[in-house]
Amino acid sequence: MDFNPVLYIVSTPIGNWEDITLRALNILKEIDVLICEEFRPASTLLKKLDLPKKEMISLNEHNEKEVANDIIQRIILGEKMALISDCGTPVFADPGHYLINQAAEFGIKVIPIPGASSLMATLSILDFKLEQFYFAGFLPREKQDRAKALLALKGYNVPIVLMDTPYRLEKLLTEVGKTFGPNRKATLAINITQENEQYLRGSLKDLQRQVQGRKAEFMLVVHAVDR
What we know:
Blueprint: E1 6-10, H1 22-30, E2 33-36, H2 39-48, E3 55-58, H3 64-76, E4 81-83, H4 97-105, E5 109-113, H5 118-124, E6 134-138, H6 143-153, E7 160-163, H7 169-180, E8 185-190, E9 198-203, H8 204-210, E10 218-222
Parallel strand pairs: 1-4, 1-5, 2-3, 2-4, 6-7
Antiparallel strand pairs: 7-10, 8-9, 8-10
């Protein structure tokens, strides 16, 4: 074998196309196949960045184990491939773990191409010194399971990062307020890097009042209790 098989994990913009890195652009130009969650966002990405059309393979939470083997074999045979998510940094709270596991098993080098991250962007604007945090991500869907998860998280006295779908923004603030108390301080990042991006700080009660009835992409950081 006169080449080193590689799988690139490429971060893409989360709202502002100018956040793409030069390295990511070069990789996306060079690859033969683009592995993506959904075809439409991936096609939009290529078009917006004036990149050539690529063969695409859809890899999602439902089919990852089915398509991973074919992807691995094609990389071994010499095809250049990159994995992206719909936006931001792939694999983090997105599909791709099994593919990377298989790539490692077959000796394929996995190379991250860093870039936009909603998590890092949110943490970078916190108004206190951050030494550690707990990423809780998405809560379970069922009401009782969500309540149990939040109750468990209350035991961690470190900043806790939560996220959910846009239509659950107000609901999540209400649930977190009931468990952590309405006066618990928090930071809410909304529509990060987009033209209408907004960063709100205050009590959970105040944040809930400010976003009443609103739907938006967001990340919520529940602050630790001062001791």
